[in-house]
Amino acid sequence: EAGVAQSPRYKIIEKRQSVAFWCNPISGHATLYWYQQILGQGPKLLIQFQNNGVVDDSQLPKDRFSAERLKGVDSTLKIQPAKLEDSAVYLCASSLERRQGNTEAFFGQGTRLTVV
Amino acid sequence: DAKTTQPNSMESNEEEPVHLPCNHSTISGTDYIHWYRQLPSQGPEYVIHGLTSNVNNRMASLAIAEDRKSSTLILHRATLRDAAVYYCILRDVYGGSQGNLIFGKGTKLSVKP
């Protein structure tokens, strides 16, 4: 079974530039998550989708971050404009069912963003 | 905020058992206890989860206290590949924001040859 695919693996941009990350979840997984992981910290949830609808985006800095999940499959996370403190690994995860705690989530390898 | 408490770090010797503790004194009756681990430069990886009874799988065992206020992840024979940060997370069975995977700082496990 193919895992969660993310691209690119690495990205370096200058502050105030824009950047986009792409995620392809495991086939059939209704729930998709985006996390931000700053070096030395645990992953922080940014947004959760159920199919193509947003369930929780309370931690997403909406002035500069946006995310979409067209057709309930692939998802993109965008930052515009980027700040130095956005340097982090951005992780995508998916799971079969949101409403049950009795399921596991599968994570991609992440995109390491460096803002200079 | 994470609802679990874990030691910041632990050390183990290769091929010996490892017991990773987690306290979750405010656990609700509908919270599952999940464990994930994160190897260096990798995304988190599911290890095991349970509700009330002890659980075993090919990776580890999960021992849950009778009052469910604490749990222990058991690696039966640690290998160098088990060196990672281990996260204990509560996940509500009914979803909502309590169903999200909210990561704390975890326990960094070092394994010595």
Short descriptors:
A: 116 residues, mainly beta, B: 113 residues, 5-stranded mixed beta sheet
What's the total count of β strands of chain B? 9
Extract low-pLDDT stretches of chain A.
Answer: none
Q: Give the overall average pLDDT of chain A.
A: 93
- Encode the helix/strand succession of chain A as letters: EEEEEEEEEEE
Q: How are the secondary structure elements laid out?
A:
The complex is a heterodimer of chains A (116) and B (113).
Chain A: E1 5-7, E2 10-13, E3 19-24, E4 31-37, E5 44-50, E6 53-56, E7 65-68, E8 75-79, E9 88-95, E10 106-107, E11 111-115
Parallel strand pairs in A: 2-11
Antiparallel strand pairs in A: 1-3, 3-8, 4-5, 4-9, 5-6, 7-8, 9-10, 9-11
Chain B: E1 9-13, E2 18-23, E3 31-38, E4 45-50, E5 55-56, E6 61-64, E7 70-75, E8 84-92, E9 107-112
Parallel strand pairs in B: 1-9
Antiparallel strand pairs in B: 2-7, 3-4, 3-8, 5-6, 6-7, 8-9
Please give a structural write-up:
The complex is a heterodimer of chains A (116) and B (113). Chain A is an all-beta fold. Chain A is built from no helices and eleven strands. In chain A, strand 5 and strand 6 (53-56) form a beta hairpin. Chain A starts with a strand and ends with a strand. Chain B has a five-stranded mixed β-sheet with strand order 1-9-8-3-4, with no helix packed on it. In chain B, strands 2-7-6-5 form a four-stranded antiparallel β-sheet, with no helix packed on it. Chain B contains no helices and nine strands. Chain B is 0% helix and 46% strand. The interface between A and B is medium-sized, with 25 and 28 residues.
